[in-house]
Amino acid sequence: MREKIHKFRWYILGLLLVGLVTVPVWGSDYVVLLCLLFCLYLALSQMWNLLAGYSGLISLGQQAFIGVGGYAVAVMATYYGMHVWAGSLIGGFFSILLALFMSLFIFRMKGLYFAIGTWVFAEALAIWFGNWKYVNSGMGMFVNPTNPPSMTMIYYASLIVGVGGFILVYFILRSKLGLGLMAMRDNEAVSETMGVEVFRSKLYCFLIAAFITGTTAGVLYVFQVYIYPYKAFAIDWTVTLLFIVVIGGIGTIEGPVVGTLIFVFLSQWLAEYSSVSLIILGTIAIVVILVVPKGIMGTLQEKIGFEILSPRRE
User: Fold this and answer.
1) How many helices (H) and strands (E) does the chain have?
2) Residue 119 confidence (pLDDT)
3) How far apart are CA 115 and CA 117, in angstroms?
């Protein structure tokens, strides 16, 4: 089975890509919505998996970049009349600047302290934006572009960030940087003695994840139209990404794909039970951790060697 999948993997991925590209042609509005959410959450979860699963940088503050990216596109489109896609890219660059500033402090920390440090930054930003009159404080603001994009345009923008994030992670992991990140994850001290520039590798990884997360958030809030700080900077985002990656298989390229697919369908099913949806998702995550600690794809790789894409170079 492994050899057959390895032989036909590019055909399988090509068919999936063709299916996603042609969704607006053959799919209903609801199917387009599901695929749009799938692409956006895929990009976000791939970045969290790159940090936690392949670099050992467990971040609880990815919502900092989501909020900055969302507010950037809202401000640029509403106040300056900029096109929303340019605003999304600017949100990505603002996220890079934020990540550079955060790195001055959090890279002095390790493990649990690193995770808490990222979360503290996100909470501080939530308070700041909640009291910043320029962005209507805690009331939030609408994304009011001069020329609002159609649903089809928003879908293809989400497809670009989703597929682009997936491809980017694949090539990063097969590069020298990726090898250094995985070595650093397994044993930072040993990897440094073997010539891995630990600080530089961490910084590059953190900046890449920040840029893609911020850009994706811009597309997300173009779709949602409205943003307010206590939702944009809420830790719910990190809980969601953690759920997706843990369910799918942390430290696997395919894991976020499977986890995102499960999450999107579960979130739609649980939409009527919003008051208990997080409890249900948490319960599912705990059960998966107990039964298959490495997630669905991680367990399949361990038991039968099943994988479509591998970071290992042949």
Assistant:
1) 15, 2
2) 94
3) 5
Distance of CA 197 to the CA centre of its chain: 25
The residue range of the domain holding 220 is: 2-10+31-304
Asked if residue 143 lies in contact with residue 73, where contact means CB atoms within 8 angstroms, the answer is yes
Instruction: Indicate the SS3 state at residue 81.
Output: coil
Name the token pair of 300.
């399949």
pTM for this model (two decimals): 0.92
Minimal CA–CA distance to 77: which of 58, 91, 66?
91
Give the CATH number, domain containing residue 57. 1.10.3470
Sign of the Cα torsion 218, 258, 116, 97 reads: negative
- Residues 6, 309 contacting (CB under 8 angstroms): no
Asked if pLDDT for residue 4 goes beyond 70, the answer is: no
CB-based burial label for 132 (10 Å; 0-12, 13-18, 19+)? middle
Q: What is the DSSP letter of 154?
A: H
Write down the pLDDT at residue 53.
87
Count of domains in the chain?
Answer: 1
Mean pLDDT of 6-34: 85
Separation in Å, CA 129 to CA 20, 68, 89, 134, 135? 36, 10, 20, 9, 7
Within a domain: 16? no
Q: Is the pLDDT of residue 208 over 70?
A: yes
Residue written as tokens 């971040």? 59
pLDDT at 274 over 80: no
Q: How far is it, in rounded angstroms, from Cα 277 to Cα 266?
A: 9
